[in-house]
Design goal:
The complex is a heterodimer. Helix content of chain A is about 60%, strand content about 5%. Chain A is mostly helical. Chain A has two domains: about 55 residues, no CATH class; about 220 residues, MetI-like (MetI-like fold). A three-stranded antiparallel β-sheet of chain A has the order 1-5-4. A two-stranded antiparallel sheet of chain A has the order 2-3. In chain A, strand 2 and strand 3 form a beta hairpin. In chain A, helix 4 packs parallel to helix 8 and helix 4 packs antiparallel against helix 11. Chain A is globular, with a radius of gyration of 27 Å. Chain B is of the alpha+beta class. Chain B has two domains: about 220 residues, P-loop containing nucleotide triphosphate hydrolases (Rossmann fold); about 120 residues, OB fold (Dihydrolipoamide Acetyltransferase, E2P) (Beta Barrel), CATH 2.40.50.140. Helices cover about 25% and strands about 35% of the residues of chain B. In chain B, strands 6-7-8-3-9-10 form a six-stranded mixed β-sheet, sandwiched between helices. A five-stranded antiparallel β-sheet of chain B has the order 13-12-11-14-20. Classes of the chains: A mainly alpha, B alpha+beta. At the A-B interface, helix 9 and helix 10 of A face strand 6 and helix 3 of B.
Chain lengths: ~350, ~350
């Protein structure tokens, strides 16, 4: 006979089943699968059987090498200069089936710099992935502080008792409600070269002095343009979180500060900001995670271009997994992204811990 | 230290008048208590003195200076709030020193003032604690400490004991009383608890519906209440009120009776009793005593509360009116037992029926 405890346990498990089942089906199983695929050569559709290949996917993505190129020298031992530029042997001499440099095999130039006569080259097994990684990190580093600061400013502005203040709250929150795909399409029009809205406005304000610019087609402005529109789109959401944090601070604390003669910034420094501690931690982590997941804007607006200047991790994961049918490659990127985000969250939690 | 003078003070929120013209003189070093039921405007009045609410009409003077338009921090006041309003992320020391920190006071002077306040409140050993580690009474003491370091001309207390449990409330009440004696400062104290008002005040201001009902010393209010409201509000249990007919009267007294009260003579000095044959008789429960024969009142016991030092008896009179008697001894009454009561005729109050 089952004891009462066991029976009630069973009932408990039964009730947990729908929720736990969904979590398992859509979160745990895909994650385990992604991790498993990343250790194989699985493709989306392939006649060949899947093979276990260990960490090869990871080394293919993360492989890096530094190589110093010495100039080509003439018989006297001087560096050969043509058209004012020092001539170097071609890189591919070392990276293509060169038995002397097996660790460079298959790697390609990521970036390089000059040191004296020599040229130091950083080689990556997967340059596109490295660019995507760097762009993603840059995106996070710019978006996280900027978006949270702007959101806090907006929250402070709308946390006032003014006539029609809810209208402003609604306006600031509106971009959040609109699908990111729609927003991306709209901003593509705004950024469009020639007679796009942004170009028109800039040209109107400078009385025609501003030359129309191809915002998304120029490697130097493409990522910046996407950062700007992403901040605009997400700022309302974080504003609302800040606002809820602001409203948990007791009004009497402000009154006490007022009586003590606290100036506006002192009140912010001593009352508001300490009261927003937990909100700040939450917002920082949420923005970081959202920023790492950047995908739709890239997919709609630039497809990673021009010249991979807007490549990002999630876009690469999807591109490989489905575009190139390389499921194992996409899975590997997903796992790497997971590890990065997880470790950053831990670091953030540690940095913002309550100090006793 | 300073006088505080309110002249025709009014407060309206839109079309709603909250304070309808209040005149109060508070002398230097006086302990004044504003008392009244919820919504009588006593807190609003205090907040107007503090500078946390605008003054709609009238003038407010603190120490011969009209302060209507002077910000809270420059009025020379300090305020202690019901919810303590101490900053949760600061230690006790930082909380007490807050005003000094804001004013960028040199550290030596700051430490000295904090120690001084801590000594007065006997909390030197708590200075490094955080508010979350303190009891309610200790928190309120921190708030009082912060007020002391401001060295204000006037201390304002907004129901400072309402969040404390009964035992602590008694302790803190005595502590505030002691503080007043040792600092010799002007203090304005708001409470709805008439016991706090009676025990602390030099002068009580009874408020109702935005009007001052009576101003006077606690014993003035107790022995010579101006009207039915003050009579019913001051003293516990509340004064008994019975409708009576005036049978005859001369300049300073009247003979009254009713179905439940035998005819007797009572002093008349309140206004509004000249043209009327109806009046309200007020007798404090403590002034009633049981007699075995005779007595002006007769009824049946419906409930007895034995408190050891006194016995509160709920009596239903022969005409159905209820009456409370508080007897200064421990006595046992049977439920339904017939009881005869008498009282000192000099201690009975006669009110005009319309003064309510």
């Amino acid at each position: 006979m089952a004891s009462k405890l066991k029976q009630s346990n069973r009932a408990g498990w039964l009730m947990a089943l729908p929720g736990a089942g969904l979590i398992g089906l859509f979160i745990i199983i895909p994650f385990v699968l992604a991790f498993a695929f990343s250790l194989t050569n699985q493709r989306l559709a392939s006649p060949n059987p899947t093979e276990f290949i260990g960490l090869e996917n990871y080394s293919e993505l993360l492989g890096l090498a530094v190589f110093t190129l010495e100039p080509e020298r003439d018989d006297a031992g001087n560096a050969v200069v043509e058209d004012g530029e020092i001539q170097y042997p071609r890189l591919r001499k070392f990276t293509r089936k060169n038995a002397e440099f097996p660790h460079l095999d298959g790697k390609r130039e990521w970036f390089s710099w000059q040191s004296g006569e020599n040229r130091t080259v950083v080689l990556a097994s997967d340059v596109v992935f490295m660019k995507a990684l760097m762009n993603t990190i840059l995106f996070v580093i710019v978006v996280a502080p900027l978006q949270s600061a702007i959101a806090l400013t907006l929250a402070l502005l709308i946390n006032q008792k003014l006539r029609g203040i809810s209208l402003f709250r609604a306006i600031y929150f509106m971009p959040v409600v609109v699908s990111i795909v729609i927003v991306s399409i709209l901003w593509k029009f705004i950024y469009s070269p020639g007679d796009g809205l942004l170009n028109n406005i800039l040209s109107a304000f400078t009385f025609g002095a501003f030359e129309p610019h191809d915002w998304l087609g120029d490697t130097s402005t493409a990522l910046g343009s996407i950062i700007a529109m992403s901040i605009w789109q997400g700022v309302g959401f974080h504003m609302v979180i800040w606002l809820s944090g602001l409203q948990t601070i007791s009004p009497t604390l402000y009154e006490a500060a007022e009586i003590e003669g606290s100036k506006k910034w002192q009140t912010f420094r001593y009352v508001t900001w300490p009261g927003l501690r937990n909100t700040a931690v939450l917002i920082l982590i949420v923005i970081t995670m959202q920023a790492f997941a950047l995908f739709a804007q890239i997919d709609v607006m630039t497809q990673g271009g021009p010249l991979d200047s807007t490549q990002v991790l999630v876009f690469q994961a999807v591109e490989r997994g489905y575009g190139k049918q390389d499921i194992s490659g996409g899975s590997t990127i997903s796992v790497i992204l997971f590890v990065i985000v997880l470790s950053i969250s831990f670091v953030q939690r540690w940095l913002t811990r309550e100090r006793k | 230290m300073a006088d505080v003078t309110l002249k025709g003070i009014k407060k309206s929120y839109g079309a709603v008048d909250v304070i309808k013209g209040v005149d109060i003189d508070i002398k230097d070093g006086e302990f004044v208590v504003f008392v009244g039921p919820s919504g009588c405007g006593k807190s609003t009045l205090l907040r107007m003195i503090a500078g946390l609410e605008d003054i709609t009409g009238g003038t407010l003077e603190i120490g011969d200076r009209v302060v209507n338009d002077i910000p809270a921090s420059e009025r020379g006041i300090a305020m202690v709030f019901q919810s303590y309003a101490i900053f949760p992320h600061m230690t006790v020391r930082e909380n007490i020193a807050f005003g000094l920190t804001i004013a960028k006071t040199p550290k030596a002077e700051k430490d000295e003032k904090v120690m001084e306040a801590a000594r007065i409140l006997q909390m030197e050993n708590l200075l490094e604690r955080r508010p979350s580690q303190l009891s309610g009474g200790q928190r309120q003491r921190v708030a009082i400490g912060r007020a002391i370091t401001r060295n204000p001309q006037v201390f304002l207390f907004d129901e400072p004991l309402s969040n404390l449990d009964a035992a602590l409330r008694l302790d803190m009440r005595m502590e505030i009383g002691r503080l007043h004696k040792s600092l010799d400062a002007t203090m304005v104290y708001v409470t709805h608890d008439q016991v706090e008002a009676m025990t602390l005040a030099d002068k009580i201001v009874v408020l109702k519906d935005g009007y001052v009902q009576q101003v006077g010393s606690p014993m003035d209010l107790y022995h010579k209440p101006d009207n039915l409201f003050v009579a019913g509000f001051i003293g516990a249990p509340s004064m008994n009120f019975l409708d009576v007919d005036i049978i005859s009267r001369d300049a300073n007294s009247a003979k009254v009776n009713s179905k439940s009260v035998a005819e007797f003579g009572v002093d008349v000095w309140r206004e509004g009793l000249d043209q009327t044959s109806k009046a309200t008789l007020g007798i404090r429960p403590q002034d009633l005593y049981p007699v075995s024969e005779g007595g002006l009142l007769k009824g049946n016991v419906t409930l007895t509360e034995r408190l050891g030092t006194e016995t509160v008896v709920d009596i239903r009179l022969s005409d159905g009116n209820r009456l409370l008697a508080s007897l200064g001894e421990d006595r046992i009454f049977e439920h339904g037992q017939e009881i005869r009561l008498d009282f000192d005729h000099k201690k009975a109050h006669l009110f005009a029926p319309a003064t309510q």
